[in-house]
Design a protein that fits this description.
alpha/beta; 12 strands; globular; single chain; 7-stranded mixed beta sheet
Length: 492
């Protein structure tokens, strides 16, 4: 419907000459008498302008409303356009006022403004911290706090490392995009699967899945931890890795074994009795102490004449037959015969903690010492772990129970702080963040002039020499990386 037709439809005149419009498009809300009078005058003025300009339109015929009696209009004059604009402005209702709530009495701000101010920015920390817990959004403040605990307060600090620290050395992690973790490992890395067919177990599982790169070297993260371990007697370290990239130390525990070593597997296990344990109320519970003691008594009594089942480890050169030993030495992808124990002739498995074994399965894992170290810890530091094995789960539970501060050096698997877990995530590659921790400890020594256990922190060259068997010249890039303080992001 055209504007003219909509305006003049169903128009009638009353006795006083007052025009009313039944099909008005104005607001249905009641208006005042003055506003009604102004609207009627505007309608009359509009009619006058239309009758003057539209000469082909018979304005005197009030009943002629059909479209056939209308002809095409001429363009309106400027004066007519102005009047039309005035008419539309006078007829249009005033714009509604925005409904903004005021909070003058209580001093509060509108909800939208509160949300904008409370939304985190891109520079905030990686996790929301529960009120009352330590928060780190000041760059390297977490490293400074950890360095103060190590250097000044002399707290017992325990480092627990995982596969993520060895990624820079070319070792594939178990989990993640490039990880070797699959359902095959979960179901095959067991004593039960090994006993079924040791040769197939090696050729179809162990050698293809857990093959190490040729001559991996410790990276800057390993060297930084070696430097800290040699400099401070209040630091202990537990590693889940079996790659052997952490140099041997009397304060290092390889909780999951080491590649290149082997253990004898008996035809059946003798620790299948009750799960009740001695000292079950101890603070940290990793292994079964009663089963471990019973197995030790069994060996010492002479009933079990093979020491490689419980207390000792075999090297590659000790394996039988000789061709299998040579194949392992040359890192062949397959072997023709499964290795055998030179003492009892049973099948030999790698010195690695399998999924159906406990930490008490072999003395190499030192589970009792691990429990004592964790029970005495004041600070726990995790480096490159996914928190998916018993060691890390038990350690985190102990930290929650004892309210211990926890630091997590990682690029993923960040910890969520809570009322029970006082955790800080130091995000970044371990080959960058751990050397930065070494630099923070040195800076703390210079600031407080503290002597670390009566010995000065060893130079980086000394740490490299202890960590690798190569020459100092070949390890110079790693030494430079360990001595530099790389920028990192610290979050809670």
């Amino acid at each position: 419907m055209s504007p003219k037709k909509r305006f003049l439809t169903r128009r009638r005149m009353d006795q006083d000459g007052v025009e009313t419009t039944a099909a008005s498009t104005a607001s249905t809300a009641p208006a005042s008498d003055a506003r009604k009078h102004q609207r009627r005058n505007a309608s009359k003025n509009a009619d006058v302008h239309r009758n003057d300009d539209d000469t082909d339109y018979d304005a005197g015929d009030e009943n002629n409303n059909s479209s056939s009696s209308r002809k095409k209009h001429r363009p309106t004059s400027p004066s007519s356009s102005t009047s039309t604009l005035q008419l539309s402005s006078s007829l249009s209702p005033p714009p509604p006022k925005p409904s903004v709530k005021r909070y003058k009495k209580r001093g509060r701000k509108p909800k939208q403004q509160q949300q904008q101010q409370s939304s985190p920015s891109a520079a905030t920390t990686t996790a929301e911290i529960t009120p009352g817990r330590r928060r780190s959004s000041r760059g390297n403040s977490s490293l400074s706090e950890l360095a103060r605990d190590i250097v000044v307060h002399r707290k017992n600090v325990v480092f627990i490392t995982g596969a993520g620290i060895s990624v820079a050395s070319g070792v594939r992690p178990f989990r993640g995009k490039s990880g070797v973790w699959t359902q095959v490992i979960w179901t095959t890395a067991t004593r039960e699967a090994f006993r079924k067919n040791p040769l197939d177990w090696y050729n179809q599982f162990w050698l293809p899945f857990l093959e190490m790169p040729n001559n991996p070297k410790p990276n800057a993260g390993h060297i930084a931890l070696t430097t800290l371990l040699a400099a401070y007697s209040n630091i202990d370290m537990i590693t889940q890795n079996v790659d052997g990239l952490h140099p041997p130390s009397d304060r290092l525990i390889e909780a999951h074994g080491r590649l290149g070593l082997f253990k004898c597997i008996p035809e059946e296990d003798s620790d299948t009795d009750s799960d009740s344990d001695d000292d079950s109320d101890r603070l940290v519970h990793l292994g079964h102490r009663r089963k471990h003691r019973n197995a030790s008594k069994h060996i010492n009594s002479g009933n079990d004449h093979c020491p490689y089942r419980k207390s000792k480890s075999l090297t590659v050169d000790q394996l039988l037959p000789r061709r299998t030993s040579v194949a392992f030495s040359r890192k062949k992808s397959t072997i023709r015969e499964a290795p055998r124990c030179p003492c009892c002739g049973n099948a030999i498995a790698p010195q690695a903690l399998l999924f159906d074994e406990g930490y008490h399965a072999h003395e190499f894992y030192q589970f009792e010492r691990m429990e004592d170290i964790l029970a005495k810890a004041d600070v726990l530091v995790f480096c490159g772990t996914s928190f998916a094995v018993r060691l890390t789960v038990v350690a985190l539970d102990h930290a929650r129970d004892m309210s211990l501060p926890v630091y997590n050096f990682n690029t993923q698997d960040l910890l969520q702080p809570s009322l029970r877990l006082n955790a800080e995530n130091v995000t970044g590659k371990s080959e960058e963040t751990l050397p930065a921790l070494v630099a923070a400890c040195r800076e703390m020594e210079r600031t407080f002039k503290k002597d670390a256990g009566g010995t000065a922190m060893p130079s980086t060259t000394t740490a490299v020499a202890a960590a690798t068997t190569t020459t100092t010249t070949a390890s110079a890039p790693a030494a430079a990386a360990a001595s530099s303080s790389a920028p990192i992001f610290v979050g809670s």
